Amino acid sequence: MNEGVTTLDATDLRCPLPVLRARKTLKSLPDGALMDVMATDTAAPKDFEAFCRETGHKLIKIEQDREVFTIRLRKKSRDA
Fold first, then answer.
1. CB-CB contact of 31 with 37 (8 Å)
2. Which of 7, 14, 53, 62 is the most buried if burial means most Cβ atoms within 10 Å?
3. Domain carrying residue 33
4. Is residue 51 part of a domain?
5. How far apart are CA 39 and CA 9, in angstroms?
6. Confidence of residue 3 (pLDDT cuts 50, 70, 90)
């Protein structure tokens, strides 16, 4: 199954902007949608862990390539 992934470029943004932009983007996506957030803020991994704990979205993985973090999220379903 090949699912589409929405990508949000939050590079060069500092806390709390990557999380705020992600929250806004997630609102426009259907339940269960995947989103990759690209961020360079070193606080982003911890910020997204907290964001997912508080909102119920699922943190799938965090990868790092040099200074860029790729944070994959799955939007929560209202039925869950």
1. no
2. 62
3. 5-74
4. yes
5. 7
6. low
* CA distance linking residue 27 with residue 68, whole number of Å: 24
Number of folded domains that form the chain: 1
Predicted TM-score of the model (pTM): 0.91
Which structure tokens are listed for 23? 């929250």
Q: For 1-80, list the strands marked E by DSSP.
A: 5-10, 34-39, 58-65, 68-74
Contact (CB, 8 A) for 35 and 6:
yes
Going from the C-alpha of 53 to that of each of 36, 66, 79, the distances in angstroms are 17, 26, 17
Which residues form the catalytic set?
15
Q: What is the mean pLDDT of the chain?
A: 94
- Residue 13, domain member (yes or no): yes
> How far apart (Å, rounded) are the C-alpha atoms in residues 50 and 47?
5
